[in-house]
Design brief:
Low-confidence stretches: 1-7, 220-238
Number of domains: 1
Strand content: 5-15%
CATH class: Alpha Beta
Number of helices: 9
CATH architecture: 3-Layer(aba) Sandwich
Largest sheet: 5 strands, parallel
CATH superfamily: P-loop containing nucleotide triphosphate hydrolases
Distance between the termini: 40 Å
Helix content: 40-55%
CATH topology: Rossmann fold
Radius of gyration: 18 Å
Mean pLDDT: 79
Strand order of the largest sheet: 2-3-1-4-5
Order of helices and strands: EHEHHHEHEHHEHH
Structural class: alpha/beta
Length: 238
């Protein structure tokens, strides 16, 4: 039995590429005094399980081919990440803006799930400014990232990242400032449905246990012999 002092809330922020989601997440964490995590989850898993970070990143970012949809390596890497993320969430007072938060935490009712959006024109302009590329190249890059993420979510979880039903709050970052967006999220996090309760923490404990059992029941061989596709976005910012 784990004994702990109840904290306040957990927030996940999902975003399309070039919608300022990282900046919004950091602003929210700063205002609430919460921890803010993203890539740190991958580093924690890489260190804990001695798994190369690049393999973890591919497992949650690249859309699998049909032939490798249920490969041991990919599923095992995803379970590593699920355990690490759920453990962080159990500690409360966290803003998570990394990959796949809306999937790994979809069964946690007290987690405030936020989506940051913007139209294609706005995102292309952001891409052009940040990457110093032409309009045509920026449009191609944005669309390819979107398609890769959509394929990943559909093939592994039968979910669409753009489905608003996955989220409690959807914010169009074109219409309001980053500061105002962070205020909206902070205020929403204070609402009673998103407060941590004894029951919600027991649920997280159960999800952690189930994820650990999946790891223990999995094949005992090394996952590193399982082939993984090379990602065309290994060095791209999203």
């Amino acid at each position: 039995m784990i004994i702990r002092r109840w904290a306040m809330s957990v927030i996940t922020i999902s975003r399309g590429s070039y919608t300022h989601g990282k900046v919004v997440a950091e602003k929210v964490a700063q205002k609430l005094g919460y921890g803010c995590i993203s890539r740190e989850i991958l580093l924690e898993v890489a260190d804990e399980y001695n798994v190369p970070e690049v393999k973890l990143l591919r497992s949650i970012r690249d859309a699998p081919a049909i032939s490798e949809r249920y490969t041991f390596a990919r599923e095992r890497y995803i379970n590593f990440i699920r355990v690490a993320l759920l453990t962080q969430i159990f500690r409360d007072n966290v803003v998570y803006h990394g990959f796949a938060g809306q999937y790994f935490l979809k069964d946690a009712p007290h987690v405030l799930k936020v989506r940051i959006i913007a139209n294609m024109k706005y995102r292309i302009e952001c891409m052009m400014q940040r990457e110093t590329v032409s309009k045509n190249k920026a449009e191609q890059m944005v669309k390819e990232v979107d398609e890769e993420r959509r394929k990943w979510s559909q093939k592994l979880y039968n979910l669409d990242t753009w489905d608003s039903r996955l989220y409690d709050l959807v914010i169009n970052i074109e219409k309001i400032s980053i500061d105002h967006a962070s205020d909206i999220i902070c205020n929403a996090a204070k609402l009673s449905p998103f407060q941590t309760t004894h029951e919600s923490q027991k649920l997280i404990e159960r999800l952690i246990q189930e994820a650990m059992e999946k790891l223990e029941k999995g094949p005992k061989g090394s996952p590193f012999f399982e082939p993984m596709r090379e990602s065309p976005w290994q060095n791209k910012n999203t």
